Amino acid sequence: MSKNVTGKVKIERIKRYTNGGRKYTILIDGNKIGAIKNGETFIYSVTKGQHVIKAKIDWLCSKPFQIEINPGKMVNLFVDCSNFRTMDVLVLLVICGLCAGLGAIVIGMLGAAIGGGVGGFVYAHIVSRPYVYEAQQESGT
Fold first, then answer.
1. First and final CA of the chain: distance in angstroms?
2. CB-side exposure of 97: number of CA atoms within 13 Å?
3. What is the mean pLDDT of the chain?
4. Where are the alpha helices (DSSP H) in the chain?
5. φ, ψ dihedrals at 59, nearest 5°
6. Would you kindly state where each structural domain of the chain is located, as residue ranges?
7. Rg of the chain's alpha carbons, rounded to an integer?
8. Cα–chain-centroid distance for residue 18?
9. Which range scores top for mean pLDDT: 23-32, 87-96, 104-113, 116-125?
């Protein structure tokens, strides 16, 4: 970023069991600014104007989140994985198992492995994908 630091972004990662032991990489305007652990918060100084924030874990990336930084202000953001309830996750795991079972019926053991892999891939894309969203804008830094 430039030396003309005029505002701040506060990024707080919601503490969750899903991806709990892994860090999210935080990108501002496509530049890696750091990694955030489960339940961690950090504040980063940025220049005034429009910026795009993304969170990334492995190959999964959040949708771009646009913010406007004003001089002397702080934008509060949260980074989280999907907030599925326990039953939703169980249903997704059953679907994963059904993919493995269907693969086993159609092809055998190799089909079970392929079906389980496909189900796990779908599960990861739905449950593990990071999300960025805004809380509220503070009056000053």
1. 18
2. 6
3. 83
4. 86-106, 109-123
5. -95, -5
6. 7-82+129-137, 86-123
7. 19
8. 11
9. 23-32
What tokens appear for 14 in the block? 């919601």
Query: Can you give the pTM of this predicted structure?
Result: 0.70
Please give the structure tokens belonging to residue 17: 């069991």
Domain 7-82+129-137, CATH: 2.60.40.1120
Spatial CB neighbours of 48, under 8 Å, sequence gap ≥ 6: 4, 6, 7, 69, 70, 71
Higher pLDDT, 49 or 99: 49
Q: How far is CA 101 from CA 2, 87, 90, 106, 117, in A?
A: 54, 21, 16, 9, 11
